[in-house]
Amino acid sequence: MEIYDNCVVALTWVLQDTLGEELDVLDEPVEFLLGGKDLLPAIEAALQGHRVGAKLQLQIEPEEAFGDFNDQLLFLEPRALFPAELQVGLTLEGSALPAGCNPTAPKDALFTVTDIYPEHVVLDANHPLAGIAIRISLRVEGVRDATEEELERGSTGTGFFRIEALPSSDRGDAALH
């Protein structure tokens, strides 16, 4: 079966930065909906017309991947506004930032705590891979027609290339996935 929009592909891959540092490895196949929200458009375009067993090597520049790093999405906030157990790497929803934080911080963004100082906390609303060109070596492990539910949802539910907050019932704070 040939890959086309609105089908599901099972992929394995190695994702690296341009210096060869591994960012992610999928050893076991994971399914993604083409034409939905699961994959970057550059990956979807490269997969079109291929079949099971195809191996592709792609380099995707930041503007085609996670965007350029935007220093306007960095916020220095007073440490006293946050709980003592705050840790570097924690992700917070913009809508859940403590009162007293910068009012221009986007409420619909997710912020990663990148640094904690005695008097300040650095929050970053950039995607963790913003500004980074990525290399991806992928293999097509399977192709199938998408279900109606997947088409309606626009996803197989993997969401690898999206960052979103988990429902509050699944987390203590926001999470990155």
SSE layout and pairings?
Elements: E1 7-17, E2 22-33, H1 41-47, E3 55-60, E4 74-78, E5 91-93, E6 110-116, E7 120-124, E8 134-145, H2 148-153
Antiparallel strand pairs: 1-2, 1-8, 3-8, 4-7, 5-6, 6-7
Report on this structure.
- The chain has 177 residues and is mainly beta.
- The protein has 2 domains: 7-66 and 129-164, Chitinase A, domain 3, CATH 3.10.50; 71-124, Thrombin, subunit H, CATH 2.40.10.
- It is 7% helix and 34% strand.
- The protein has helices at residues 41-47, 148-153, and strands at 7-17, 22-33, 55-60, 74-78, 91-93, 110-116, 120-124, 134-145.
- A hairpin with a 4-residue loop joins strand 1 (7-17) and strand 2 (22-33).
- The two termini are 30 Å apart.
Concise account of the structure shown:
This protein is mainly beta and 177 residues long. It has two helices and eight strands. β6 (110-116) and β7 form a beta hairpin.
CATH topology of the largest domain: Chitinase A, domain 3
Can you give the mean pLDDT?
A: 88
Beta-strand residue fraction: 25-35%
- Major β-sheet profile: 4 strands, antiparallel
Helix content: under 10%
- Gap from first CA to last CA: 30 Å
Number of strands: 8
| CATH 2nd-level architecture of the largest domain | Roll
List the secondary-structure elements in sequence, H or E: EEHEEEEEEH
Query: Number of folding domains?
Result: 2
CATH class of the largest domain: Alpha Beta
Structural class: mainly beta
Taken from the alpha-carbon principal axes, the silhouette is elongated
Number of discrete helical segments: 2
Rounded to an integer, what's the Rg over CA atoms? 19 Å
Poorly predicted tracts of residues: 163-177
Strand order of the largest sheet: 2-1-8-3
